[in-house]
């Protein structure tokens, strides 16, 4: 290997390292998960704009719990009683309450998460958002 065009004292891997991402801090998995759920609920909110009838299906599913439903189910019932625009705003709201409720969302089945590429894109975007 000849040294043509290279500085004798320079590390040959320096150029490649300069192209790598500089921020290598460990990512907080809980924050990534919360952000991923927010992204998923943004997708759900978009779907509700196009197909508001989806809410009726979710409301019926929650009604099956009856009167002695867990607290989070009661909270979701209250949110989903509102009109579609209000529900869409609540789904994407950045509050401690909605971050907590998104962990037990009855709306997750609204978008097709079987698509591995979609899940990867959501995770990657969520990971970028917490840096």
Provide keyphrases for this structure.
131 residues, 7 helices, globular
Q: Could you explain how this protein is built, in words?
A:
- The structure is a single chain.
- The chain has 131 residues and is an all-alpha fold.
- The protein has one domain.
- It contains seven helices and no strands.
- Helix 2 runs antiparallel to helix 5.
Number of domains: 1
- Helix coverage percent of residues? 55-70%
Q: How widely separated are the two ends?
A: 40 Å
Number of helices: 7
In angstroms, what is the radius of gyration? Answer: 22 Å
Percent of sequence in beta strands: under 5%
Order of helices and strands: HHHHHHH
Low-confidence stretches: none
Helix and strand topology:
Blueprint (H helix, E strand, L loop, with lengths): L13 H6 L9 H22 L3 H10 L7 H10 L3 H8 L4 H7 L13 H14 L2
Helix pairs in contact: 2-5, 2-7, 3-4
What is shown here, in short?
By secondary structure, the chain is mainly α. It has 7 helices and no strands.
């Amino acid at each position: 290997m000849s040294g043509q065009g290279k500085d004798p004292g320079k590390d040959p891997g320096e150029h490649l390292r300069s192209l790598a991402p500089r921020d290598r801090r460990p990512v907080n998995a809980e924050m990534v998960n919360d952000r991923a759920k927010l992204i998923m609920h943004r997708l759900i909110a978009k779907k509700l704009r196009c197909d508001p009838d989806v809410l009726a299906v979710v409301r019926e599913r929650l009604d099956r719990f009856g009167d002695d439903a867990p607290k989070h189910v009661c909270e979701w019932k209250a949110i989903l009683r509102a009109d579609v625009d209000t529900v869409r705003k609540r789904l994407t709201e950045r509050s401690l309450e909605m971050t907590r409720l998104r962990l037990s969302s009855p709306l997750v089945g609204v978008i097709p998460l079987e698509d591995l590429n979609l899940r990867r894109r959501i995770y990657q975007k969520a990971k970028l958002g917490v840096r």
